[in-house]
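Example 3.2
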Amino acid sequence: MILVTGATGNIGGALVSMLLATGHEVRVLTRDAARVTASGVEIVIGDLEQPATLAPALAGIERAFFVF
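Structure, written as C-alpha cells:
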C-alpha cells in the first residue's frame, strides 16, 4: 500500500493515476474526500498539520509520497 498526500492536486493526482494503472494499492490522505476524483483508492480524512489524524493514514503503509 502506497500513501499519497496531495492527491487532489496536479502532481499527486497524476501520481495516483500512474500508480493505479500499474496495479498498486493506493491510499490517499485528504482533508476533503469529495475532491478525490480517482476511483479505486482508499480515502483517509486527515491533515498533515494535525498529527493526531495521521495514524489511520499511516497504518500498513509500505511507501509514501508526501506533498506539503
